[in-house]
Amino acid sequence: MMIDLKPARILAIExxxxxxxxxxLENGRALLSSTVASQMDIHARYGGVFPEVASRxxxxxxxxxxxxxxxQSNLTLKDIDAVAVTQGPGLAGSLVVGMNMxxxxx
Length: 106
Known about the structure:
- This protein is an alpha+beta fold.
- It has 3 helices and 4 strands.
- The longest helix has 22 residues, at 51-72.
- It is elongated.
- The model has no long low-confidence stretch (mean pLDDT 96).
């Protein structure tokens, strides 16, 4: 008997500090797409990362970043088999945004 194994596709979300990032991996090795929304210019005026600003920017960026990553990989959420997300270490408010997005997708 032959088993037809489809590739496992993982949506990975990263929001531990000041960059909102997302990637789609296939079989844990092949990077299908990756998107990063940087907050560097926003935090420059503060001389470093300002945690409250970082978490608010993640709220604004997370959906567009995930959508762009899926579009670049020519996949939809229905094609995703698992979701990975950074749970720490990191800024608490920033981590919450990524965790909530991952929970919403899962």
